[in-house]
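Field reference: "sequence" (input) and "structure" (output). Example, Co-chaperone DjlA N-terminal domain-containing protein:
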Amino acid sequence: MNIVNFDKLLLKTAFCCMASDGHIDAREIALIQSMCQTSPLFKDFNFQDEINLLLTKINTSGKEFIQYYFDLLNETELTEQEELTLIDFAIQTINADEQIEYSEIKFFKNIRHRLKISDEHILKAFPTIELFLEEDIVTESFLDKITRQYLESTDFPQFELLTLDMDANSSNISGKVGE
């Protein structure tokens, strides 16, 4: 397994949640950028370089990149607090464009089933996401099936690299972020 820093795992989580519906909304990019800027986890972090690297990876190997992300989650040992932080990044990103697509819920369920934290603890921290935790008959084969379904049903469009135009007091984005 590749060793990954928690900050990069958080960014990959937010990025994958953003791309899971096949559309990148400027509000999602702005939110992820803001979360990175305000979190103490992201020190000496070049957001534009990192997000463009992820865009390049999803453009060149979309399904393989998502599978790599799922494998990374399976192999990474996280504390309960880290899992809650990861869930927070995922949920905020999914909600950023004010439209929750079924593909995003399916994607979140894929994330959730790779974490060790209980639904009870998740709902204690995030009481409004009950929809995301609705019970499915989850077995190893079911998880494999929904992962395969997600990867087979998702055609990843080609996203354009971002040009971020920021001054010290704002997080304005310029340039096209894709359709």
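The beta strands are 163-164, 173-174.
Residues 26 and 35 are 14 Å apart (CA to CA).
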